[in-house]
Amino acid sequence: MAYFDNIPTVKFEGTTTKNMFAFRHYNPEEVVLGKTMKEQLHFALAFWHTITMDGSDPFGTPTMIRDFSTDASDPMEIAHHRVDAFFEIMQKLGMEYFCFHDVDIAPEGNSLKEFYANLDEITDHIKEKMDETGIKLLWNTANMFSNPRYMNGASTTNSAEVYACAAAQIRKGLDISKKLNGKNYVFWGGREGYESLLNTDMGFELDNMGRFFHLAVDYAKSINHLPVFLIEPKPKEPMKHQYDFDAATAMAFLQKYDLTDYFKLNLETNHAWLAGHTFEHELNVARTYNALGSIDANQGDYLLGWDTDEFPTLVVDITLAMYQILKNGGLNPGGINFDAKVRRTSFEMEDLILAHIAGMDTYARALKGAAAMIEDHYLEGIVEKRYESFHNTDLGKSILDGSATLTSLADHALEEGGKVELKSNHLEYVKSVLNDYLV
After folding, report:
1. What value does the CA radius of gyration of the chain take, rounded to a whole number of Å?
2. How many separate domains does the chain show?
3. Is 77 annotated as contributing to ligand binding?
């Protein structure tokens, strides 16, 4: 069944086009830094915000027109229709990847066994669509935060029975990943944290989460399907404090529990903002630890303090993010997943297409701007000059090669009388020139 017959396949038409359903900047075949945009930008469609989000919020009822969710009454029939609509959107946009939570694609039913059966049926349908279109699974994950059983966490729960239920969902998720040839598998700890330390043993909960991740690794090995495991940091919401607060916190956890060989990070713009960071900061931290795996593409609102998941349109922010991604050598086998939702007032079916065009164009602009900076050696040159005293002087070289001692450094400082030559960073000028690269 088709739901978007009135919308043509979206093509690149350039900035002069007046066609709403055309790319102005994303040209899949345009070569940037030796690769086509399609190769550089592994765009992925998110099932949850695209298909299941209905526009309701704490202040109002649903607003979205979603024919694929209202043209049947049986939950499984609706689930099948949603799969058809989902793949139709990807084909309209020329996307080659997708992501989903287990509860997005199939109703949970009255038991885990029924949920398993529903997942089997719907993933059979998804696999048929994948084989038909060539579209690939970027990653899947288990929703272990919506069901009331997870009110106190999943792997960090206070209940051994809940811990076992979480394990059941992860086992099924990995079976599905193998079935659909997923390259990554995400853990987002929606309720892995605490609401109060008054009744929480944080060390115990972190130990249990470490054990849980090792169980997942062991099972993946046992079925001969070991995807790249990804942790998605977020500091708060829904818990007051979540254990994967930011990239640095997540890396400390992975190092402590000896998981760095199996896990990388899936970073999100809006989550970075909630942690008090920029997106480029989080990407840089992950890159520093050789742990940048994949990203969720969205943005927050400067005036709102929660996870608004808006489509990315801030070119300067995304250009700096793409700079970090390109310096990382790209995202492989990760990609750029649009974990973004249309605004409640953008309720028509066509808005799903228009919003993704906006996001894809933003990342295309950012890719070209970041590539130009790299080709000009712009930021690299500034950084190299800032640290040149460590590379171009005997004193600096002695520090880097380990031949310096505390005494030799102190003697040098005493001989020079503590005098140093300071140089301006010219940061305002640097930012001014940066604007020239915003294509």
Report:
1. 24
2. 2
3. no
Residue 377 backbone class (left: φ over 0; alpha: ψ -120 to 50; beta: rest)? left
Q: Is 307 assigned a ligand-binding role in the annotation?
A: yes
Q: Amino acid identity of 24?
A: R
What amino acid positions are annotated as catalytic residues?
Answer: 101, 104
DSSP result, 324-351: HHHHTT--SS--EEE-----TT--STHH
3-state secondary structure of 97: strand
Q: Is 271 annotated as a binding residue?
A: yes
Residue with tokens 């630890």: 289
How far is 237 from 251, CA to CA, in rounded Å?
20
DSSP H helices, 140-262, are 160-179, 202-222, 247-256
> 344: closest CA among 67, 45, 54, 49?
54
Q: Is residue 21 part of a domain?
A: no
Residues 371, 388, single domain; the answer is no
Q: Please, which residues bridge with residue 98 across strands?
A: 45, 137
Task: Assign residue 330 a region (left: φ > 0; alpha: ψ between -120 and 50; beta: otherwise).
Answer: left
Taken in order 255, 260, 263, 269, is the CA torsion positive or negative? positive
274 & 326 share domain: yes
296 is in an annotated binding site: yes
Q: Do 278 and 342 lie in a common domain? A: yes
Cα separation of 353 and 358, whole Å? 9
Give the rounded distance of the alpha carbon of 420 from its chain centre: 44
Give me the domain span that covers residue 422: 380-435
> Are residues 40 and 63 located together in one domain of the fold?
yes
350 is in an annotated binding site: no
Which portions of the chain are predicted below pLDDT 50?
none
Q: What is the pLDDT of residue 305?
A: 85
Q: CATH number for the domain including 149?
A: 3.20.20.150
pLDDT tens digit sequence for 242-266: 999 999 999 999 999 999 999 999 9
Compute CA distances 21 → 8, 247, 268, 419, whole Å.
7, 36, 26, 62
**Phi and psi dihedrals of 53, rounded to 5?**
-70, 130
Residues 148-170 as b or e (16 or more Cβ within 10 Å = b) = eebebbbbbbeeeebbebbbebb
Phi (first) and psi of residue 52, to 5 degrees:
-100, -15
